Amino acid sequence: MQLRRHDVLDGAIAILDEYGLADLTMRRLASSLHVQPGALYWHFPNKQTLLGAVADRILEPIDAPVTAVSWDGQLLELAHRLRDALLSIRDGAELVSATYASRLTTTQAREKFVKAALRAGMPRPEAELAAYTLLYYVLGHTVDEQSRMQMDSYGALTEDASPLFETPDATARFDFGLQLFVGGVRNRLGDRVRA
């Protein structure tokens, strides 16, 4: 059987989901696919390129058409869709965050945030900054959330380990931050805000 690019991605995601980012090595991936490590390099010239492709696969749900009509509804929908995609795979938030930082992902998630901010009435330079702000909020929140979930599953979190968070509901904390963001956009635009 010939090894195809999507087989390599599927194998990488399976390892990531079962063992985590630290254990996603080219050697382990090759072993799980029953090939020599060199066979992987036919599809991906290095591990960083592979990680970028894995991040793009994790972020595929962001590419679906947005159903919300209003700009704020679009931002909220996209932010939740991004969070859900990141949480769907173990260490997904950490991996995507790293690939964004190194510019290895080709996803259009940030541009979707930009379009919603433009729809609100922001000038393009501000819409770009707003998109980065929201993207990094979602990534940061979700990295923390995913880390806490994993620590909790290992019994490493004690009840007094999170005094900063009054509510244990991660979605409620996430939504509060999103509402602050949308409120900030409305405040910045003042009378210029669009529906």
UniProtKB/TrEMBL annotation:
SUPFAM superfamilies: Homeodomain-like (SSF46689), Tetracyclin repressor-like, C-terminal domain (SSF48498). Residues 2-62 form the HTH tetR-type domain. One of its GO terms (biological process) is response to antibiotic. InterPro entries: DNA-bd_HTH_TetR-type_CS, Homeodomain-like_sf, HTH-type_TetR-like_transc_reg, HTH_TetR, Repressor_TetR_C, Tet_transcr_reg_TetR, Tet_transcr_reg_TetR-rel_C_sf. It holds the Pfam family TetR_C_1. It comes from the Bacteria. GO terms for molecular function: DNA-binding transcription factor activity; transcription cis-regulatory region binding. Residues 25-44 bind DNA. Keywords: DNA-binding, Repressor, Transcription, Transcription regulation. PANTHER family: HTH-TYPE TRANSCRIPTIONAL REGULATOR RUTR, TRANSCRIPTIONAL REGULATORY PROTEIN. This is TetR/AcrR family transcriptional regulator C-terminal domain-containing protein. It comes from Antrihabitans stalagmiti.
